[in-house]
Amino acid sequence: MCGITGWVDFERDLTAERPVLEAMTRTMACRGPDASGYWAVPHAAFGHRRLAVIDIEGGGQPMTAGEGGDVAAALTYSGEAYNYRELRAELAAAGHTFSTASDTEVVLRSYLAWGDAFVERLNGMFAFAIWDTRREELLLVRDRMGVKPLFYAPTPTGVLFGSEPKAILAHPAFEAEVDLDGFRELLGLAKTPERAVYSGMAEVRPGQVVTVGRGGLRKRRYWQLEATPHTDDLPTTVTTVRELLLDIVDRQLISDVPLCTLLSGGLDSSAVTAMAAAALGRTGEGPVRSFAVDFRGYTENFTPDVIRPTADTPFAHDLARHVGADHHDIILSTADLMDPANLREMVTSFDYPTNWGDGFTSLLLLFRAIRSQTTVALSGESADEVFGGYAWFHDPESINADVFPWLAGTRIRMAEPTLLDPGLRKALDLQEYRRSAFRDAVAEVPHLPDGPLSEGHERRMREVCYLHLTRFVCWLLDRKDRTSMATGLEVRVPFCDHRLVEYVFNTPWAMKTFDGREKSLLRAAAGDFLPESVAQRKKVPYPATQDPTYDVALRERLAKLLTEDSPALPLIDRARAEVAAAGTPDDELHRTDIEFVLQLDTWLRDYEVRLDLDA
């Protein structure tokens, strides 16, 4: 995995702009700690930071290819193409020669062989840019599910791009400005396709190719979810899901560096870990290494609640024993979560504040600890979106609401930023913003033309699944990408393989819940890999600390901020913040409100953002 950046300008010679290119590329050092590379021709300049995973010696970038000494195309690439060996064999049979063993060269030569249609042949997670020297044309490409990020900013004479906003922000011509819509995106809890937080910046949509030439910028969707009839019976469906998962996990174990799994003890991560253990055992490469997060005293003093009825650690240990994993628990403390340096690193990893504080910070710290021992990790992320694992999938009020199901009912009140200034909250009008985004998303949903699967509850559940696969999972994948790549750890997401997503999306909801439980298909497909305790465990979200000293520390930090010359003060409700800091008995403030304000302060101090928040 890597960090990419670049600049296209049709009216200036970019070979003379090396200092700017180097500054943009340096911002990607966290994503690629192993090496840096630069390439430029008069109207295009590429930068690359490398995390070496496949072909350590030969996979350097940016990479060029051509015939007779002439460069036909250049590539700066982030990601993994899991089917690169099959593509390489096909290209070799057609006469292409290779000088490296990397998937990067396969991607580049695939473009030379098949043009921009080659992206439809790729299976993997990726974001990359190709400069075609023959056409003087740039292609920006992102994987189907949006596992890897890619941002761009059109200019009057070209475009800037990068894996993260910080690469574009490093360009002297780009100003960090955020308007009301950008601020709404910070708090929306749902991704709006193509929209970025910063004004003048956009994000390549999952499954999209953006082409930039002298004639301007154009976009093409090479993949999106489609409605197709599901003709398999239940046993065939379970078998197909199982076979797909085994193939996906096996492909995603390809690595020339140490590899592990993320193991929470839930159904999703346990299925990935167990299948990885089986695959490594067959090749004699085991045991699988696994890692889990825990908080100091959390398991011993765990208090069940409606959201988290069980602690993760006992179940993670059950699975590890069952498959013979080399398992490690990463124990975090309140001091770790409240360390200002960790808070700053978390904000920097996103380039803006987030609205799920300790859940993001703890993930960053988990990945940092894992990275000290390994380079690649497989995750169970996205199984809930694919198979219908969240509680609200099974709550009539949530699925029939006129807003995203994960924000329906009492949850939408919890998602309100109660510490922001009342005037700003009115201008943001988050509830209407979210409802408008919801209506736009529902309007996109593909439906079968006729029959019972296009009516009633089945129709609605197709819509609910689509919303999760196009608006919610992207938010979670951003969290996974930024917090992992901030530490130089590559995290792979088997459940985002497009073949599995397409197949399960078109499976009837009644079949997805055939035994009356959540994720019925996954449990049936992977259950025999798991101990009974894990196979029957109910969905539990990512853990949050229950240490009461964490809430005390948050309030103390907020109280201190209120005495300082903080750039966040004009944006918050000071009276409400003082009540929150005091922690009075009638205060029902959710901790994420304080966490957001603390991050907002850090962001405004470090990024010198110009805010345009007038309604």
Helix and strand topology:
Elements: E1 2-9, H1 18-26, E2 35-41, E3 44-50, E4 63-65, E5 73-81, H2 84-93, H3 103-114, E6 124-132, E7 137-142, E8 151-155, E9 158-162, H4 165-169, E10 177-179, H5 180-187, E11 202-203, E12 208-213, E13 216-221, H6 234-251, E14 259-262, H7 267-282, E15 289-295, H8 313-323, E16 326-332, H9 334-338, H10 340-350, H11 357-371, E17 376-378, H12 383-387, H13 396-399, H14 410-414, H15 422-428, H16 430-444, H17 456-485, E18 490-492, H18 498-505, H19 509-512, H20 520-526, H21 532-535, H22 548-562, H23 574-582, H24 591-607, E19 610-612
Parallel strand pairs: 10-19, 14-15, 14-17, 15-16, 17-18
Antiparallel strand pairs: 1-3, 1-9, 2-3, 4-5, 5-6, 6-7, 7-12, 8-9, 8-11, 12-13
Helix pairs in contact: 2-3, 6-7, 6-20, 7-8, 11-17, 22-23, 22-24
What would the keywords be for this entry?
6-stranded antiparallel β-sheet, Rossmann fold, 2 domains, Glutamine Phosphoribosylpyrophosphate, subunit 1, domain 1, 615 residues, alpha/beta
Structural description of this entry:
By secondary structure, this protein is of the alpha/beta class. It folds into two domains: 2-221, Glutamine Phosphoribosylpyrophosphate, subunit 1, domain 1, CATH 3.60.20.10; 234-535, Rossmann fold, CATH 3.40.50.620. It has 24 helices and 19 strands. Strands 2-3-1-9-8-11 form a six-stranded antiparallel sheet. Strands 4-5-6-7-12-13 form a six-stranded antiparallel sheet, covered by helices on one side. The longest helix is centred in the C-terminal third of the chain and has 30 residues, at 456-485. It is globular and about 75 Å long. The mean pLDDT is 94.
